[in-house]
Structures are given as C-alpha cells and as structure tokens.
Amino acid sequence: MRDAPYPDPTAALPGSILRDDVVPAGGYWSRRLPRGDGLRIVDLEGRQAVDFLAYDANAPKANRYNVGNTVKFAGTIYLTAGHQLFDDAARPMMTILADTCGRHDTLAGCCSAEANLRRYGKQATPNCKSNFIKGLGEHGLSPRDLVMNVNFFMNVPVRMDGTTAIDEGWSRPGDRIDLRAEMDLICLISNCPQADNPCCGYNPTPIRIIHWHGSVDTA
Question: Looking at the 3D structure of the chain, how many domains does it have?
C-alpha cells in the first residue's frame, strides 16, 4: 500500500449514486449502463491499470468499442477529458467528463495467459482476457465477441523511433476518470492482475467503481 490519503471518491459527483463497488486486484466488474448515466473509476492506491470495454446494449455483437475510430476522432492515442469512446458504427459511446490522471492507453490491449506465457514464461497466470470472458458470459456474449480495449491509468509511451513500452502509470492515490454513457451500454472492467510488468507498479491494487444517475444532458 502506498502512503497517501484517499480523497473522497464521491466528491463533486454529478448525480445520485446507484452502485458503489470496490473491485479487488485481479477482479472484474460488469454492468448495464443506461444512456445518460455515468461511471467514476477511482484508482485507490495509484499506478493501477484498469482495462475497460463497452458494448451497445441493444446490439452488442454488432457495435462495440472501436479503438481505431476512437483514436481517429480524438486525434491522439492518449485519451482525457473531452474525448469520446466510439463504436464500430462511428457513434459516440461514452464521453470522458473529467480526468485527474491525464494518461490512458489505447494501444496495448489486455494481458492474457497466452501473452504472459510468451513474455514471461509463466503458465496459467491471472489475466484480463479471462476476466473479460467471464464478464461477457454474464451478458450472453462469448469469447468471439471480445475486442481490443482501452486501458485507463496505464502508461504506454511511444518513442520517436516508433517503439513502445509499458511504463509505470502516472496516477496517484485517488485519481479518477468520469465517463458518461451516450447510449445504452454493457460495460466491462478488469482490474488488471499483471505483476510482471510496470503497468500496475508490480503490485496490483483495488479500484473503486461508482455508477451514478446524472443530471448532465447527453451529447
């Protein structure tokens, strides 16, 4: 645990709380999110990667989070407040309302048992791909519906020569990102269990997820 006070995770929340969960290191979370509702994701102890996916709740097999559209329309690989997550049909799925961290990854995707074996020589490790598959199953979806995700609080710098790396995240204890649903969604979160690279500071820790019903108009 890192020595720092936790700011109030409900401070300045733009609506009434419907659900408030602490997800342990390596755990996952899934929930339907109606249009206009919001999510606050809080990195409780800092430097904790949070893998995130969203699906159109009315057509989850046809319209999912699309990293290519998201990066094209944002004009950057690093998302922050004011940017949106887009689906396969180039429609906004979520708007980032607030962000106290300032560095989130769109490139690296999720860890998996297969990738961990190749990179670290370790068999059957906990991983975000398995968490996503569990979450998909709760909504009648299968592993074939898994797509590339966004990683909140994860730092993947791109160097001048085009090479990339996974570095320690920028987030401090209590940093948060607020997102508003622009359509009815299925949201999946894997609180990354990765301990063999710096994406979680080699020490995965809990996060807090607050679902609120907001008064902010949708775009």
Answer: 1
